[in-house]
Amino acid sequence: MTFHIAPIKPQTTWTSLVILKTYLVEDNPTIRDNLIATLEELASVDAVGTADNENDGKEWLLKNPQLWDLAILDLFLKQGSGLGVLAACRDRRPTQKVVVLSNYATADIRQRCAQLGVDAVFDKSNEIEALVDYCRVQSGALD
Prior knowledge:
The protein has one domain (20-141): Rossmann fold (3-Layer(aba) Sandwich), CATH 3.40.50. The chain has five helices and five strands, in the order E-H-E-H-E-H-E-H-E-H. The protein has helices at residues 29-42, 54-63, 82-88, 107-115, 128-141, and strands at residues 20-25, 45-51, 70-73, 97-102, 120-123. The protein has a five-stranded parallel sheet with strand order 2-1-3-4-5, with helices on both faces. The longest helix has 14 residues, at 29-42.
């Protein structure tokens, strides 16, 4: 009598995540630095650059379309608005995501952002965990 023993597949408890190349447009250096540290630690994010105003944010994102997967935008900046950056990123690849992170995530702002093609809007005061979860999902989606 011959027995066939199937090889045992190793069990894994983690999933392979792709690092999200992320660009931040945020004018508050404390918020920007803390957000980068949090997302890099908890959500497979690599901050590839930052801007503190609309013009610099638009310029970098449009000139470097292959260098980013996710853009995180604040609405109120030193110069200009995150809405201008969002509008400039309308014609991005389907895998590129743009989210707004703002203290002013009202229903009206969410609607205006949706009209400009935002992928998600998060409130800085109470939705940071949701942003981390969103980044985790996106890094898994890039596999």
